[in-house]
Amino acid sequence: MKHLFVFLLIWLCSNRAYSQCNINNFSFQSGETVTYHAYYNWHFLWLNAGIVHFKVENKTYDDKDSWFFSAYGRTYSGYDHFMKVRDTFEVYVDKQDFNPLFFNRVTKEGSTESHHKYYFNHNTNQIQTQIKRGEESSFKDSTLQLQDCTNDLLTMVYKARNLNFSQYESGDKIPIRMIVDGKIHDLYIRYLGKETVKNRDGRRFRCLKFSPLLVPGTIFESGEDMTVWVTDDQCRIPIVVEAKVLIGSVKAVFVDVAGLRNEMSAEVFE
Question: Which keywords label this protein (predicted)?
């Protein structure tokens, strides 16, 4: 469950020329909520250890009409003794150009709590970061150059849901640029074609399949040790995300969705 959001949020991204800078939204609307169960592989058993909620709302930030995207995750109380997780990701995004304005991340994992705040200034082309990790007593401030098409994790998720993937063939690499842990990374997603996926509840979905390049750290090794299946329809809802971690494997599984803008036509009923 630890760092579940990191692998769930990097599920997919952009096209060959970083065209995620400007998009026209066709896939979601205010009021949409998506729920996932978080599983951890322990001695050949997949344990349902937690739950994750994604939500879309209309809000105003700095006098700008904005999207407010949020993702909240936690372990169930029965697993808190093993690794208590309470994670929050939030971002305000300008509706006019879909650029992130302010990103906030609070991760509480075990006895460790970390805070990341990013202020995107698109007039000066700078990102002001405020980060406090673990036992640090105060925030550390820094200024980064805002490179073209730089997005936070959560903004990237919703931008990706509005991209045209019909132009790709299996094996193609799709470049992305994201700010993660206070640093800007040039990464990619490898498109792996289409598959029909059977969910844990027995429902079946036609999906697009991807494998993202991960940022190396204390949980993930660098490489493509993650696989993501996303509905092949106008909703682009992630159905399953699987990843290898340094100790075992983790998985996020789609449970429910409400407030969809479009019909979830990728579900297979026959």
Answer: Signal
Q: Is 257 in contact with 33 (CB distance < 8 Å)?
A: yes
Strands 249-258 and 33-42: antiparallel
The pLDDT of residue 216 is 58
Q: What tokens does 243 get?
A: 């990843």
Burial string for 208-237 (b: 16+ CB within 10 Å, else e) reads: bbbbbbbbeeebbeeeebbbbbbbbbbbbb
The predicted pLDDT at position 250 comes to: 84
Residues comprising the chain, all counted: 270
Nearest Cα to Cα of residue 146 among 159, 128, 160, 131: 128
> What sections of 60-210 are H helices per DSSP?
80-83, 153-160
State which H helix or E strand residue 7 sits in: helix 4-9
Q: Note the pLDDT of residue 192.
A: 92
Q: What's the whole-model pTM score?
A: 0.87
> What is the pLDDT at residue 248?
66
Neighbours of 123 (CB within 10 A): 6
Q: Determine the pLDDT at residue 161.
A: 85
CA distances from 250 to 50, 67, 76 (A): 11, 29, 15
Ranges of residues in the chain with a pLDDT under 70 are: 1-20, 214-225, 245-248
Answer for the pair 191, 217: CB distance below 8 angstroms, yes or no: no
Bin 167: left if φ > 0, else alpha if -120 < ψ < 50, else beta: alpha
